[in-house]
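Budget justification aside, the reviewers requested a transparent look at the raw inputs and outputs of the sequence design task funded under Objective 1. We therefore reproduce one unedited record. The lines immediately below are the structure tokens for a 431-residue chain.
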């Protein structure tokens, strides 16, 4: 590929993946590639994959088939977690030209220079235990809120999870680098940064490029609050055992860190948490929620829950559901357990039938709807700051544009489009 070509990206999975895709896109644009929409015809298609669920694997295959029908002469590159975990499996998908594992993802432009269409699929993978470098990433121009990656990898060994196998050991950026990057984004007009990572609360405890450093996530929060002019920060997701009192108390008094927490629970049954090898009990979780609500009654709390994991009996599920029902939280992200190769969960019995997993998912999604309705209605009549994002067309009326935005405590607001409101913080009375 001797001449600059066009490229299109598609991202599966988490906020961290979005930040990495955005960074890869900027690298290729700086290298002379023209960026296209994924639905357009492009010379190169890059799919940044997830492998948390079986659906992500299936979606990757479907996307490749779609590209083959649209543009069979185009190059197809697969990277991300699925590419690290199962490179040989991906190489068997017709149409895939290049598979890049964790260590090679950010060398994409060099690999493209050496590709020839029609050759055997090239696999550039690695032993994940050898991955120690941290690659800073952020999304910009993609949305009003910018996802800034500050940590990668995970040292935990949850029985259901493949992420340590796909991303490697915990490692993170230095605080001085994150501060400089955040202030640079502020100078570009970014109004909100979402701090992202695989195990965000573990920031500073790993190694970066083989060099140890001793900084904490709380140190990062303080530095960003004190040394940058970004109006809004959000903490994307943080383990309850790593969400310390000092972090919660700092957010409560901060004007820049929003009263919004996303705290994975996974199960409200201590027996299931033990089977999952989680590092907390439900009493620890309840303590975190109670402290947040005590000093920030208006705070939004989102919760991740997995249903149907091995060993989750009917009684354990009821225990979990009852616990979640009593929690003063705002919404749930409900995941249906799916078997992942090389995980300890495969050895745990009893296995929950798929039909029961799906039924439990529906039950908790209904509970989430009720929680969100109640949380939103509690704030009717109050005036809060809303950051309005880019306009979007209404499905049933393509000529009508709407502005969507979120309050500081993450209540969604929608209003007819006004160009002067895009990427602006506005007072809004909720109703």
């Amino acid at each position: 590929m001797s001449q600059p070509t066009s490229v299109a990206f598609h991202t599966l999975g988490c906020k961290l993946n979005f930040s990495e895709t955005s960074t890869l896109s900027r690298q290729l644009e700086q290298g002379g590639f023209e960026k296209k929409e994924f639905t357009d015809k492009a010379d190169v298609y890059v799919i940044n994959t997830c492998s948390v669920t079986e659906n992500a694997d299936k979606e990757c295959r479907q996307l490749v088939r779609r590209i083959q029908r649209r543009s069979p002469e185009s190059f197809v590159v697969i990277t991300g977690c699925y590419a690290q975990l199962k490179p040989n499996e991906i190489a068997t998908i017709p149409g895939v030209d290049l598979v890049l594992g964790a260590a090679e993802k950010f060398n994409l432009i060099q690999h493209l220079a050496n590709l020839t269409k029609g050759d055997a699929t090239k696999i550039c993978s690695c032993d994940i235990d050898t991955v120690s470098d941290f690659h800073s990433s952020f999304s910009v121009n993609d949305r009003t809120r910018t996802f800034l990656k500050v940590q990668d990898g995970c040292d935990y060994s949850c029985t259901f999870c493949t992420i340590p196998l796909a991303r490697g050991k915990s490692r993170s950026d230095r605080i001085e680098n994150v501060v400089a990057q955040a202030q640079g984004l502020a100078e570009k007009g970014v109004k909100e940064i979402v701090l992202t990572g695989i195990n965000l609360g573990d920031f500073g405890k790993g190694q970066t490029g083989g060099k140890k450093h001793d900084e904490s996530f709380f140190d990062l929060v303080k530095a960003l609050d004190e040394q940058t002019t970004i109006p809004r920060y959000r903490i994307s997701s943080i383990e309850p055992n790593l969400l310390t009192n000092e972090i919660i108390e700092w957010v409560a008094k901060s004007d820049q860190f929003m009263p919004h927490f996303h705290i994975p629970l996974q199960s409200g049954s201590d027996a299931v948490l033990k089977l999952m090898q989680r590092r907390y009990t439900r009493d620890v979780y309840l303590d975190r929620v109670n402290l947040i609500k005590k000093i920030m009654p208006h705070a939004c709390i989102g919760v991740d829950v997995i249903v149907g994991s091995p060993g989750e009996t009917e009684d354990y599920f009821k225990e979990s559901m009852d616990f979640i029902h009593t929690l003063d939280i705002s919404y749930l992200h409900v995941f249906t357990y799916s078997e992942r190769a090389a995980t300890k969960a495969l050895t745990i019995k009893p296995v929950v039938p798929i039909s029961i997993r799906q039924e439990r998912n529906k039950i908790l999604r209904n509970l989430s709807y009720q929680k969100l309705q109640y949380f939103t209605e509690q704030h009717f009549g109050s005036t809060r700051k809303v950051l309005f994002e880019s306009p979007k067309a209404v499905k049933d009326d393509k000529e009508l544009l709407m502005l969507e935005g979120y309050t500081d405590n993450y209540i969604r607001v929608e209003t007819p489009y006004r160009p002067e409101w895009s990427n602006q913080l506005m007072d809004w009375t909720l109703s």
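The CA atoms of residues 147 and 416 lie 26 Å apart. Residues 354-378 form the longest helix (25 residues). Computational costs for records of this kind are itemized in the attached budget.
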